[in-house]
Amino acid sequence: MQNSTSEVLRQARRIVIKVGSSLVTNEGRGLDEAAIGEWSRQMALLAGEPGARREVVMVSSGAIAEGMKRLGWPKRPREVAELQAAAAVGQMGLAQMYETKLREQGMGSAQVLLTHADLADRERYLNARSTLLTLLRLGVVPVINENDVVSIEELMFTDNDELSALVSRMMKVELLVILTNVDGVFTGSPDESGSELIRDIWLDDDYSGCVGASKSSFGRGGMMTKMKTAMGVAKDGIDVRIANGRRQDILIEVLTDPDNALCTRFHPSKKPI
């Protein structure tokens, strides 16, 4: 089964990559130009690999965190209106950075902002899917984020991990890669002595007791939500990897050398549950 899974990944034609706010903004210090440039380089290599014809979708957080920096706010606000204002300010820089870095690699980019309501309404869902498919056919990388400026608090996504799961299902991808600031899921805190990386997780495994719920002050998610997202997506027959977004060439390793890539692998159900 391991060899079969590896071959599926090597032949994967459509993938979703999700990056969180702490990675994109270097823990709130501002958009990490080097990191975004590095992910763009890897995406270009994967998309341009001879015979691969891969299609890449990026789900990227970071608008609110970047807006907070530009507005000089040291802490994430609680008021919805202030969060929406920060998102409006930060989204400008986020889109521009991806456009610049992907263009340097000869790739086009498109900003796609979605709300929970967009994916809950059948007509809007189909329109969004049609647009994304067209962008991929044109060789453009959709950079997707939640439309925080108009999202209603009660209907907001839990975080962009949830959004990446919905996009993965909508686009019928073969692989979802969730990039974080550690190598994957550990048996305890990654900083604890004796804590080990869990390389493989199967659908009937239960590791919830050894995973902390800690999160960055610049985002809404944590490792527990990433695990829940990964398990849910794997139940739908999609391969999932949680990996360190700062590790050199991690995206390339996951797709071209899946057996040895340093990450946590969530093995999918053969048939959607």
Quick recap:
With 273 residues, the chain is of the alpha/beta class. It is built from ten helices and eight strands. The chain has helices at residues 2-10, 21-24, 33-48, 63-71, 80-104, 116-120, 122-137, 160-171, 223-235, 250-256, and strands at residues 14-19, 55-60, 108-114, 140-146, 175-180, 200-201, 239-244, 264-266.
Characterization of the model:
With 273 residues, the chain is an alpha/beta fold. The protein has one domain (2-266): 3-Layer(aba) Sandwich (Carbamate kinase), CATH 3.40.1160. The protein is built from ten helices and eight strands. The protein has an eight-stranded mixed sheet, sandwiched between helices. Helix 3 (33-48) crosses helix 5 and helix 8 (160-171) packs parallel to helix 9 (223-235). The longest helix is centred in the middle third of the chain and has 25 residues, at 80-104. It is globular.
Shape: globular
Distance between the termini: 18 Å
CATH topology: Carbamate kinase
CATH class: Alpha Beta
> How many separate helices?
10
Overall residue-averaged pLDDT value: 87
Largest sheet: 8 strands, mixed
How much helix is in the residues?
40-55%
Question: What structural keywords apply?
Answer:
single chain; eight-stranded mixed β-sheet; globular
